[in-house]
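Q: I have 63 residues here and want to know how they pack in 3D. Can you give me a structure?
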Amino acid sequence: MPQPAHNIEKLDEHLLEVVRAIHGAVKQGVSHSDEPKVIDGAIRDCKEILDVIMEGNVSDWLN
């Protein structure tokens, strides 16, 4: 069974920043919906962020 994170506040802070980053990327893409390059960049940014989260290296996030 996995051990709980020792520094849960730092984990919460990191995940809040992740949500803000994704929100910013989506907002950028939506506000430039007539510019395919901007939309593609926003999608790439979201994918990169989510790929890091899905790797699940929580100890890396706490350093």
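Q: Anything worth noting?
A: The chain has three helices and no strands. The radius of gyration is 15 Å.
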